[in-house]
Design brief:
298 residues; Helicase, Ruva Protein, domain 3; seven-stranded mixed sheet; Rossmann fold; 2 domains; 9 strands; single chain; alpha/beta; two-stranded antiparallel sheet
């Protein structure tokens, strides 16, 4: 319960239905809106993020405020980014009793997060906690891990299939460029699965809570972080092709280039038939750096 008047928490079926009816709201498919109505799941998300009373939290897509409310109860301050202008007055009312919440009507991908963090959070750790829209999950996660702003943890809900890609191991179907890019600097784990029936309306798939934390020690780093990301994407451009053929797609098919690619692969003891999904994250870092040393990647 949220107050002495025994108003149910937002993240309950009864209160969610009341809010949706009051404002004549329905989930917008184009914005990937699904309202989470399982209070146990909401509280578990806060627990996984280990939110404490000195923490600042950035939330993405608060919707009608179900997760925002639970975060505000635990955190020092919550800053939420909501792209749907129609939900701003709803949030103003549903969250009016909380004095530690600030909502921006802004696309998270357009936000200057270092500036926001500097202005809104004076001390303490900053964490990202969110129920991400399915249609834009990957761009948001990639933006967060590449952002100049640094987060102690990123705890986000996403489609189960995407979560499997983030945490995939080499030689598995789900392993790809996203796995390598995320895992190179971060520890990633699936914290728990969320049944599709926990939402209104129910999506067609189950969800997963992913926790991403920066690695304390990175023993193997690419010569250039941004170029590494592009390089890895190129290596996985055509999954059915060998690594050698994909590297030609990245660097070209000139005779000298092809010979240099073979030299690189020999140096790393990679056979002509090696496939991208067989390489570990560290092997991709080595491959990137050796390509750079042979002037293929500049």
């Amino acid at each position: 319960m949220t107050d002495s008047n025994n108003i149910p928490d937002i993240g309950t079926p009864t209160r969610t239905e009341a809010i949706l009816n009051r404002y004549d709201l329905s989930a917008k498919k184009g914005l990937g809106q699904n309202f989470l109505v399982d209070l146990n799941v909401l509280k578990k998300i806060v627990e996984v993020a280990e939110i404490g009373d000195t923490d600042g939290v950035i939330e993405i897509g608060p919707g009608i405020g179900a997760l925002t409310e639970q975060l505000a109860k635990a955190a020092k301050k919550v800053v939420a980014f909501e792209i749907d202008a129609n939900l701003i007055p709803v949030l103003d009312e549903t969250l009016e009793q909380y004095r530690n919440i600030k909502v921006f009507n802004e696309d998270i991908l357009q936000a200057n997060l270092p500036e926001v963090i500097g202005a809104e959070f004076k001390t303490g750790a900053v964490k990202v906690v969110a129920n991400l829209p399915y249609y834009i999950t990957t761009p948001i996660v990639l933006d967060l891990i590449q952002n100049p702003a640094k987060f102690e943890a990123i705890v986000v809900m996403m489609q189960k299939e995407v979560a499997e890609r983030l945490t995939a191991e080499p030689r598995t179907k789900a392993y790809g460029s996203l796995s390598v890019i995320i895992q190179q600097q971060n520890d990633v784990e699936v914290s728990f699965i969320v049944d599709r029936k926990s939402f209104v309306p129910s999506p067609n798939v189950d969800s997963a809570i992913i926790k991403i934390t920066p690695k304390e020690t990175i023993t193997n780093s690419p010569f250039d972080q941004q170029k590494f990301y592009g390089f890895v994407r190129g290596c996985f451009m055509h999954r059915r092709k060998s690594l050698y053929n994909n590297l030609q797609g990245v660097f070209g098919k000139d005779k000298t280039v092809k010979e240099t690619i073979r030299t690189v692969m020999t140096e790393l003891e990679l056979g002509d038939n090696s496939r991208p999904e067989e390489l570990s994250v560290n092997q991709f870092v080595d491959l990137c750096n050796v390509c750079h040393s042979h002037s293929l990647l500049k």
